[in-house]
Specification:
Layout lengths: L5 E2 L6 H20 L5 H21 L6 H21 L3 H21 L3 E2 H8 L13 H14 L4 E7 L6 E7 L6 H6 L2 H8 L8 E5 L5 E7 L23 E5 L5 E4 L6 E4 L6 H12 L5 E7 L4 H11 L10 E3 L2 H20 L1 H10 L12 E7 L2 H5 L3 H16 L5 E7 L9 H5 L3 E5 L5 H7 L13 E6 L7 E4 L5 H10 L9 H8 L3 H4 L11 H4 L2 H8 L11 H7 L20 E2 L7 H8 L3 E2 L31 H8 L2 H6 L23 H12 L6 H12 L5 H13 L3 E4 L7 E4 L2
């Protein structure tokens, strides 16, 4: 079968040449027998054939066969002339067949079949072609292995070492028809090779594109290079969100770069996998971008943002690295509503259209005066798990921003704790072109986060991950992220404070026009069920048009805590205020009534007391009044003296215990309990069953009527876990779960 796109070997025309010579010789012989001079045609045919053959050979760039082809044409003309004059004989036929065989052999050796790919490779500059040494036993062994595994005639063209020869090997392949890099990447070939050559745990085989589509490169890691710790080394020079930055490093040491202006991102990873550290690395790059604002949604008390806000809170940085922080669903709903409003406005406003026309593009160019907005969610799955209307709206808003915001400079980076459909919706993942998944507890969760099967390699190290860039990678790539320490974060926040942009004036105007109905996704805020919600500071600022401008005033307590200021807990009980004593003018100073009133907390207005009372002598009361000696009811001072007598007080010193059940003496009011005590009681009642934070808050609300905020519950649970009073379990789905430490 002819190979598609190839140039045939010259040997294919030898049979046709032989037949043509025989037919023409027979015609010339017949003419010569008839008495004409037909034999002269044989001489002319040989000369003309030699000329035409030479021209064709030169045009087809096969100069090596020019000599024997010209000789073949001349010999053919001479043989035809001989047959025309002398007639047919066995000798003449043998000579023709023998010369045809020699000619075919020369053509097969000197003019073989050449494919178009070989011609292109031959025409490439030498600098583009890898130079290999002579074929070695190692190449032969690899070729035999690959042919067994692929069931195809793969050719190994050469083997080179990685920059560090102990780390790995690079194998250059030529692929047969029907086998491509994409097909190899989507199969289990990489895993099969790793198992066949018995690579150490953590080592992988990566299939890469080569110089053309008929070739491939195998990167074979022979040492677990990802075990090496990598610390962050990020400059503080100005950057742009349009720039690519190093998100992670491949085992070979190559930087795996991404661009957040073009693609959104999904970050997955279980507890302790290095997910938050990776988010810090992303923020570290965005902090350098003079054309991007960073907004953070973190329902875990704003832990990701707090490290970056510390220098600003202490006055060490002029501007905060994080432009807006949402620690609960109310603030997050307002933030998302503002971003959606700004995004929709940028689709048609005058400044956006002017920028698009000037740049001749449909994507709005961003800069310091018109920045992009990157909204980053830490533990984004908690948003989907949170109970309530606003939490559900935040989840919908984030997906909407990811779908409509690319051209207008609104990007979403969402992190999830688990790779399950209840935490990461497939529709959101589909519009996020950068997907990185760190260690997961279950193998199937990698597929859900990445949208591709990464293979069977285990992630053994903190920060190890699979990176899948939908526009570049056929298959997720094994990478290692960098480590980021707290001191580096604080130094970077201070150094890049001058680079932080401000929201453009048009964006501020749009933010001031956001209404409560916008935050509630069109619902009527006058509905009675929203009455308490409208009293929240966020909604009050929305009504005043200051939801964006007052974002840091609402975070005054958070900033004070970052300054290490000791603030009382807002829900802890305070000392009850003693009511102002009631003033009464009816008791004279020193009288029994005045002493009784003083003991009861009632003040006496001595100035308004009748002057006659000053001269009145206190009534002497018997030790214990008897029914035969009643005290006059109209003598108030006498009644007071009787109540204060030692005999009466002795009767009340140890009151008899009521005999009837349920008649116990109880205080009128119970002292208010601290929230942490309520959490302990809820966990104690549920023991040994463990509870989620939502279940704990629900139990407190049902038993006491107190509504503990999500942020407050998280803060206190974290403190109780740190003190060893409560244990936390992150291994089960739907967690984390909390229980009493025993």
């Amino acid at each position: 079968m002819k190979e598609q796109g190839s140039r045939r070997s010259g040997a294919v025309w030898v049979p046709a040449w032989t037949i043509a010579v025989l037919v023409l010789a027979a015609v010339l012989r017949h003419g010569t027998v008839q008495g004409d001079k037909s034999w002269l045609v044989g001489i002319g045919a040989g000369l003309i054939g030699a000329l035409i053959t030479g021209i064709i050979t030169v045009i087809t760039e096969r100069g090596r066969v020019l000599v024997h082809r010209v000789l073949a044409a001349l010999a053919g003309g001479g043989w035809m002339t001989w047959v025309a004059l002398a007639g047919w004989s066995p000798v003449s036929v043998v000579l023709l067949v023998g010369w045809a065989a020699v000619l075919a052999l020369l053509e097969w050796v000197l003019a073989p079949t050449v494919t178009v790919a070989q011609v292109i490779r031959h025409e490439q500059p030498a600098a583009q072609q890898p130079v290999f040494q002579s074929r070695s036993d190692e190449e032969a062994a690899w070729e035999a292995l690959l042919r067994r595994l692929t069931k195809a005639k793969v050719i190994v063209r050469g083997i080179t070492s990685w920059p560090n020869p102990n780390d790995g090997t690079r194998i250059h392949l030529d692929l047969p028809e029907g086998l491509t890099v994409k097909k190899m990447s989507e199969s289990t070939l990489a895993d099969d090779i790793a198992g066949a050559v018995k690579l150490p745990q953590g080592c992988v085989v990566r299939i890469l594109d080569a110089a053309h589509q008929g070739a491939a490169i195998l990167d074979v890691m022979t040492r677990d290079c990802l075990a090496d710790d990598r610390m962050i080394s990020e400059p503080t020079t100005p950057a742009s969100i349009n720039d690519e930055f190093d998100l992670a490093t491949s085992p070979r040491g190559e930087a795996m770069t991404v661009c957040l202006r073009q693609k959104g991102m999904v970050v997955g990873g279980t507890t302790g996998s290095g997910k938050t550290t990776l988010l810090h690395r992303i923020i570290m790059f965005l902090a350098r971008c003079t054309d991007a604002l960073i907004w953070v949604i973190d329902f875990n008390g704003g832990g990701v943002a707090s490290m970056w806000l510390g220098p600003y809170a202490r006055g060490e940085a002029k501007k905060p690295t994080i432009d807006w922080v949402a620690e609960d669903e109310i603030e997050a709903a307002a933030m998302c509503a503002v971003l959606i409003a700004v995004t929709k406005d940028r689709k048609t406003n005058r400044e956006s259209m002017r920028r698009k026309r000037r740049a001749n593009t449909t994507v709005v160019p961003v800069d310091k005066d018109f920045p992009a907005i990157v909204i980053l969610t830490d533990e984004g799955g908690e948003i989907r798990q949170a109970i309530g209307l606003l939490a559900s709206l935040v989840d919908q808003y984030i997906a909407r921003i990811a779908q409509i915001g690319r051209a207008e400079g609104a990007r979403v980076i969402q992190s999830v704790l688990r790779g399950t459909s209840d935490l990461l919706e497939k529709g959101l993942r589909a519009v996020q072109g950068i997907r990185i998944c760190l260690r997961m507890d279950e193998e199937g969760e990698y597929d859900h986060v990445l949208g591709k099967n990464p293979g069977r390699v285990r992630l053994l190290h903190l920060g190890s991950a699979f990176l899948y860039r939908t526009d570049r990678d056929y298959r997720p790539v094994l990478v290692r992220t960098v480590n980021v320490d707290v001191k580096s974060i604080e130094r970077h926040a201070i150094a890049t404070a001058d680079l932080r942009p401000d929201l453009d004036q048009r964006g501020r105007l749009v933010a001031s026009r956001v209404t409560a109905a916008d935050v509630l996704d069109g619902r009527d805020p006058r509905d009675p069920k929203f009455a308490d919600l409208l009293e929240h500071p966020v909604f009050q600022d929305v009504a005043a048009g200051l939801v964006y401008e007052n974002r840091w005033e609402r975070k005054a307590a958070m900033l004070a805590e970052l300054r290490d200021e000791d603030l009382p807990e807002d829900d802890e009980p305070t000392a009850p205020a003693r009511p102002e004593p009631t003033v009464t003018p009816v008791a004279a100073p020193g009288s029994a009534l005045a002493r009784l009133a003083h003991g009861a907390g009632v003040a006496v207005d001595q100035q308004q007391a009748p002057a006659a009372e000053d001269e009145k002598t206190p009534v002497t009361v018997p030790a214990q009044p008897t029914p035969q000696q009643p005290v006059p009811v109209n003598d108030v001072d006498a009644v007071a003296a009787a109540l204060l007598s030692e005999a009466h007080l002795a009767l009340d010193a140890d009151p008899a215990r009521p005999a009837s059940p349920g008649a116990e003496l109880v205080p009128l009011t119970e002292p208010k309990k601290e929230t942490r005590d309520l959490i302990r009681e809820a966990l104690r009642e549920a023991y040994p069953r463990m509870m989620t934070a939502v279940e704990i808050r629900t139990a407190i609300r049902e038993t006491t009527g107190n509504d503990v905020t999500k942020q407050r519950a998280h803060e206190l649970l974290t403190k109780l876990v740190g003190a060893g009073e409560v244990v936390r379990d992150d291994t089960r789905a739907g967690g984390p779960f909390y229980g009493l430490a025993v």
